[in-house]
């Protein structure tokens, strides 16, 4: 089973790129972030014609997440991250697909920092940590995946000294990410490639892509039940070089097929 995450940076504007990539790689499950489209403007017909079922949570101009599945049923669990009933930003979805819980997320950027946007990001991380702990307790296969907007270590950022005051690299942000991992999650890329320079994002400015001046901010966190089935992982870096492409590249993993009954405890 091949599972991917892709921050499309505008699902309608980048639709030709998305469809080309789907046709080229045919992942079984895909999580999309930064749709930048209201709920009624998601290109469902085009996605269906490409062979995918879809659920999505849109938002006008900003944010937005979606989960796609190729020839598989998607059972939605929730489209909000628990912990703040007043949070209206479309940044989180959970679904059950063939016994696998998929949690698609688009974590806040947090800049400019310090300030209210960083405070929102750290609070969002707290909510995510609580949800992650709850999901782990179910003892069922779970993947947290998407754009986490954090570079966990210096290996994950080109010239880290330039990012010391950025909300994607602040010590408290990196600690928040590490605290979730330390609950018992596995960072899939670092599990397979502990010492390699791997990026998933390249800015549009200063020829960042051609210079490979990138960041690794799109991540897969695997529960123990999934981590033991991990076979391979990678970044489709070449997609970033396509015309009118997102500033992110698709990231993917391959795992042995998981087909288990739903968790005995209800997911709430």
What report would you give on this structure?
The chain is of the alpha+beta class. The protein has one domain (2-255): Endonuclease/exonuclease/phosphatase (Deoxyribonuclease I, Chain A, 4-Layer Sandwich). Helix content is 25%, strand content 24%. The chain has eight helices and twelve strands. The strands form two sheets. A six-stranded mixed sheet has the order 3-4-2-1-12-11. A six-stranded mixed sheet has the order 5-6-7-8-10-9. β1 (2-7), α1 (15-25) and β2 form a beta-alpha-beta unit. The protein is globular. The protein starts with a strand and ends in a 13-residue tail after the last strand. This is Exodeoxyribonuclease III. The active site is at 106, 147 (proton donor/acceptor), 248 (proton acceptor). Residues 4-248 form the Endonuclease/exonuclease/phosphatase domain. InterPro entries: AP_endonuc_1, AP_endonuclease_F1_BS, AP_endonuclease_F1_CS, Endo/exonu/phosph_ase_sf, Endo/exonuclease/phosphatase, ExoIII-like. Pfam families: Exo_endo_phos (PF03372).
Helix coverage percent: 25-40%
Taking Cα atoms only, what radius of gyration do you get, to the nearest Å? 17 Å
* Oligomeric state of the chains in view: single chain
Q: Determine the CATH topology.
A: Deoxyribonuclease I, Chain A
- What is the number of domains? 1
Largest β sheet strand count, sense and barrel closure? 6 strands, mixed
Give the SSE string: EHEHEEEEEHEHEHHEHEHE
Number of helices: 8
Structural classification: alpha+beta
Q: What amount of the residues lies in strands?
A: 15-25%
Q: Strand order within the widest sheet?
A: 3-4-2-1-12-11
Give the number of DSSP strands. 12
Distance between the termini: 26 Å
**Low-confidence blocks of residues:** 262-266
CATH architecture: 4-Layer Sandwich
Give the CATH level 1 class. Alpha Beta
CATH superfamily: Endonuclease/exonuclease/phosphatase
Overall pLDDT score: 96
Site (Transition state stabilizer): 149
Protein name: Exodeoxyribonuclease III
EC number: 3.1.11.2
GO molecular function, one term: DNA binding
